[in-house]
Every structure is written in C-alpha cells, then in structure tokens.
Amino acid sequence: MENFSSLAYPSVSKVLCGENRFNPRHSILNFTFKKGLSNIVESMHAKTLQLQSNSHLSICLKNRMLYSRTTKFPVSLFDFRVSASESCSNYQNNVCCCDGSYCESFQSLNLQNESSWSASEIADATNGEIVKWGPCGTICTDSRSLCHGQWFFAIIGEHFDAHDFVNQTLDDKGCVGVIGNRVCETWGRGFIKVKGNTLIALEKMAKYARNRFHGHVVGLTGSVGKTTTRTMIALALEHLGQVYQTHGNQNNHIGVALTLIKIPASAKVSVLELGMSRGGEILELARMCSPCVRVILNVGHCHMENFGSLEAVAKAKGELLAEAKHGDICVLNADDPLVMRIAVPSGVKKVFFGQGNDSDVRLVLAESISGGCAVRVILEHQNFKLRKEILGRMTSEKVEFEIHGPGLHLAVNACAAAAVAVSLGVSLRQVGESLSKFRPVHMRSELEISENGMKIINDVYNANLTSMRAALNSLKVMDCRGKRVAILGDMLELGVTEADAHKAVLHMCCDARLGLVALVGNRFLSAVEKSKLPEGINIICAQDLESLTPQIAEMLTDNDVVLVKGSRAMQMEKVVDAIKAINSH
Q1: Quick one: average pLDDT of 77-82?
Q2: 27, 115, 166, 548: which has the fewest Cβ within 10 Å?
Q3: Residue 28's beta-bridge partner residues?
Q4: Continuous H helices in 424-521
Q5: Taking the C-alpha atoms of 299, 305, 307 and 309 in order, what is their torsion angle to the nearest 10 degrees?
Q6: Secondary structure of residue 255 in the 3-state scheme
C-alpha cells in the first residue's frame, strides 16, 4: 500500500475525507471535489497543482511515480504537492478505482503548512543524495523541540554533534527524516545524505530558500533595540500582505538560516534580525539573506570584548551595507554619528530617520503619557527625493499615535520602522495605525502590574550601557506611589570598557534618586568598591541571585515601581519570578 501523506493542502484549514480508497493493482487516482468540475491550474515546474473550487483531478500512479494526465514526465511521489483555495475547505475527497476490484484504504491527506519542504527540494537545496525518501515536512535543528512531521537537520558544532541524537527517541517524536552525514543503523525514516560540514549545507539551503522568495527581505542590525524594532517593522509592513519575521532570538548563523528556510510561500515580506559577536559575521549573514532593505539602528557598547573600540563595532555593523546592490534601500539612523560615517555603496537608495530636520522620517515628538506606561509619538515623512512642492513649500505627511509600553526609546524604534515602511510604499497614516497595536516583546521593556499595585519593568533579556540608560530613564518618569527600585545584574561582554560602564550605571542610579538599588554580580560589586557614592543612597549588593532575592523580598512594598535588568547570562528573570511569587501570597 502506498503512503500518500506527502500530498498536501497548505492553504486549507480543514479537509473532510470520505471514502478514500486505493487499488494497488490499478493506476488511476481520481480526486473529485463534490460540486463538480472546474478549472485546474497546473505548474509542474513548481511541482504543484493548484485546485480551485469545484475541481476534479485525475492522477496516474506507476512505479511509485505520479503522472498528471496532462504532463509528459513523472514527478516523484514525495515531490508532489496539491494546494487548494480556501473555498475548497469543506469539500470531500474521493479516490476511485477503475473497477470494482479489491481496494485498500490509505491515509487521509495530511495538511502541511506552507513552510514544508519535499525530499527532492531538500536534496536540490543542499546538494544532497536521497538515500531514503520521506514526506514533505518543515525543518528543525534542535532534537529537543522537534515536532511531529519535521525533518531533522543534524548540525555539527564546536561542542556537539547532532548526529548523536538520531535515535529511536527522534523517531518516536514523529521525525519524518534526517538531513546529515549519517544515521543510525536502525533508522527507518527518510534520509538525505550531505557531504562535509552540515552547517554549510544548512547555509546552502537558506540561500536556495532566499533565491526562490520573490518578496521583500528586510535585514536589520544594531547594538540595541533590534528585536523591538524588528517587531515594529513587521507590524508597519502588514499592509503589504503576510509578513514573516525572525522568531525569538534567532539572529545568529543558524537562526537566520532557519528563518529563511521557514518563509511560507504566501509571505510577501520577511524581516530578519541580524546579530553578531565578532567581525565578519554580519557580512556572512547579509550574503545569506541578501536583503533588499538594509537597516542599521545604532552603534553602541555591545560585544566590546571582541572589539577594541566603538569604531570597530561600527565597521562590523557596516558590513550589512558592504555588498548592497543597485536599487537596494539602506535605512540609517541620522542621529548616530558612527552610523553616518559608514560607507554606503553607490546606486542604493538612502533613507534617514531621526530627530534632525534632514531626516526623511523625522521624530517630531516623543513624550511619556499614562503615568510613564505609554509614549505619545508624532512622526513626519518629508519626501526629499520627489521634491513635491505646493506654494513653494515641500509637502510632508504627519501622523500621531501612542505606543503601549514604557520608555521614550520606543519612539526611536518606531521612527526606524516607519522609515522602512514608507520606503516600501506604506503611507505614514497606515504606519501609525499599525504601530499603535504594538506591545513590548517579552522581557524587553515589558510592563507587568501585580495584584498589590507593584509595577515591574521586565527588561531582563540583555543589557549594555545604552540600554541601561534607557531603562533607568523609563523608571524615573513612571508614576510611583511607593519607591522606585532598580535591580540590576552585571553587563557582560564589554571588554576593556567593562569597569567604566558599570561605574557609569552606578552614577545614573544616584542621579535618578532611586529609593533602592540592588546589584548582583562581581562587576557591579567591584564598581561599588571603587566608586565614591553620595551618602544616603540605599544600595544592597550580592554576588549571586540566590543571596540577593531574600534581601529584596523584605524591602519591597505595595505600589513600588521595580526595574529588573541585566545581561542574558545573569538570568535576571528569576528575580522577576521571585517578586511575582511574593506578591501572590
């Protein structure tokens, strides 16, 4: 009996299957939608049959190959896809035999999502060999999170070899196949063999995915605000159609590759966040995703242990522009001198955002409202390129909206997102409508209010000097009926600037006149020991979270406003959880 699970209806949310039967002795399969015959749009080049409403499809089966009645060449069974319009979703499928002889039932057609890859597509993309066929499925590189119906791409890293996890457990999870150098002897699912470094094969697959995607690709980088701005860009571009963006923190080599590989066929735009920890990394990512819109948000003290200066950081961020093609759009922060010094290739379109009068998208106003829990924003789009003038003055478009979340820095992120959107033809009015729906990303300027009225600014995802300053400014302006509290963890990867950066944050806390400052980590402890702090400031210090949390529990009261922030490795979210637990009792 043949397995037809690879026949997929990506765009249909539900298919009601009736008497699906298959006669292995005969060759004709008829897929009939009950309301009769209609048009069939066929594209064998894409190996897809698009079924419209009221349609009928007849396919011949021969030697594990499928033939459409109108084609002269076969398509492998596991290469074949069928998609149907939404109006087909309630129709019934019937597979009919050519006579009344013995029939066997076969699996109901699975509903694959639009990010699925067939075995032949994977082999083509990775230059691999199909050792054993498998059905269409999405791609996963983490055996722990693999879901039923996914292909497992076995990556070899510096400290691990994912081939070691190709075992019965993976099979039990519903893995449909492995892409890698080898499989275990008992592996019975699909296997596409690739030679050499599997990370290079993953990159090949990502480039293959990028080349077949014909929508807009936005690539952005910066020292702070990448994830928030990426989320805002995705919102601002929603008027262009479906937008697919980086999930979570997948902004490294593997994450960017997976984002490209998972772009659904129906997407019109993809927004990719590009991170780095060393020179040359942004260039590699830019070559992989080949963005048509390239965004540099800012240059700050980030990963300084691998860079000798801010100028070196700027050079690394500038790699995003190095190979920009004629007609590409480069969106740049006009308020950041280091960004403005980055060389921009000729033939590209430059779009500037910022507070200056020469910015294409200008931040006219940013003010805290709702007791510091939101930001009122006014943006202006000045079309310098078209030079449209009325009564001797250039026309411009303005929009006013509110961003839900604490911190004026959100207005700058919104300005950057607006610059991307208007450069792709979205009106500023539409941008305002979209960005008013923004909510802070988890653990990034996320405001949580407990039952007893305590406000927690959960900004624990990461920290450097620039983001610490922005977070403390948010704390200062927030309405407070108790005391303002900053609970801060060490800032990591700052290199030679480490000591000065931690001292600078201490002085910011003193200037803000906070009711309580709680510090955790050896770097902050060292800064306290070496700094002359004014009398009267209430500071408690601890080397680790375990010793800090009990002290905080005794000092917090109802109606306090608490900022929690630190580098990712400090795991400051544990402090947030502890505070919530206190307030739940």
Answers
A1: 40
A2: 27
A3: 60
A4: 428-435, 465-477, 498-511
A5: 70
A6: helix
The answer to whether position 208 is within a domain reads no
User: How many degrees, rounded to 5, is the angle at CA 139 between CA 136 and CA 143?
Assistant: 120
Query: Per the structure block, which two tokens stand in for 193?
Result: 């063999």
Distance CA 223, CA 399 (A): 27
How many domains, the chain?
4
Q: What share of the chain is helix, strand, coil (3-state, %, to 5)?
A: 30, 25, 45
- Asked whether the predicted pLDDT for residue 45 surpasses 80, the reply is no
Read off the CATH number of the domain in which 473 is found.
3.90.190.20
Tokens of residue 312, six digits: 């070196």
Domain coverage including residue 73: 16-105
Q: Are residues 221 and 253 in the same domain?
A: yes
Q: Render pLDDT for 343-363 as a digit per residue (tens, 0 to 9).
A: 999 999 999 999 999 999 999
Residue 137 carries which DSSP code?
Answer: B
Residue identified by tokens 């800012």 is 298
Q: What is the mean pLDDT of the chain?
A: 83
Enclosing H/E stretch for 42: strand 40-43
Please tell me the pTM assigned to this model: 0.82
- Percentage, residues of the chain above pLDDT 90: 73
Report yes or no on 9 lying in a domain.
Answer: no
- Residue 54 tokens read as 């009221």
pLDDT tens for residues 288-311? Answer: 999 999 999 999 999 898 998 999
- Domain identity same for 248 and 390: yes
Mean pLDDT of 186-202: 97
